[in-house]
Amino acid sequence: MSEPIRTPAGDALNDLVLDLFRLNSRMLAAGDRLVAGLGLTSARWQVLGAIVIAERPQPVAWLARDLGANRQNVQRIVNDLHKEGLVAFGANPHHQRAQLVVLTDKGRQAFDAAMRLQAPWVNRLADGLVVRDLNTMHAVITALRRKLEGDMDAEEQS
Predict the structure, then answer these.
(1) N or C: less crowded end of the chain, CB within 10 Å?
(2) pLDDT tens-digit profile of 56-88?
(3) Which CATH number fits domain 23-127: 1.20.200.10, 3.30.420.10, 1.10.10.10, 3.30.420.40?
(4) C-alpha closest to that of 81 among 46, 115, 56, 55
(5) Nearest partner of 64 among 54, 55, 73, judged by Cα
(6) φ and ψ at 92, to 5 degrees?
């Protein structure tokens, strides 16, 4: 059986995807180390961030969608955050069972502490990189994410 033939763009994207997989693993490990002293993990920090960014309390399914993550995994993390007192559950006027996830004061303090650690870390990581290159990379990654989200939406509708 012959190897599938990739276009030059397909080859370049394949190389980028493989590096993104490696980068994701390294970022998660670095994030875990960075916030371990706060009793957080990268996953918990990420969910807290999604709650902070949301304009209002959201159900777990919406948080998972915003994170591009599996609802069951986000539910497990939210349950852990609830046990730690970092989030609370509120009534959802639009759905009986899908409670809203609400950040507690303790959760806000933990998130803010993580962000205070993150700022000098990300500044060191960015040192020597060209801002224009970072902005271009961000635009490319955003375009790829949107294409994949569109593909997933089309699959769900069919």
Answers:
(1) N
(2) 999 999 999 999 999 999 999 999 999 999 999
(3) 1.10.10.10
(4) 46
(5) 73
(6) -105, 110
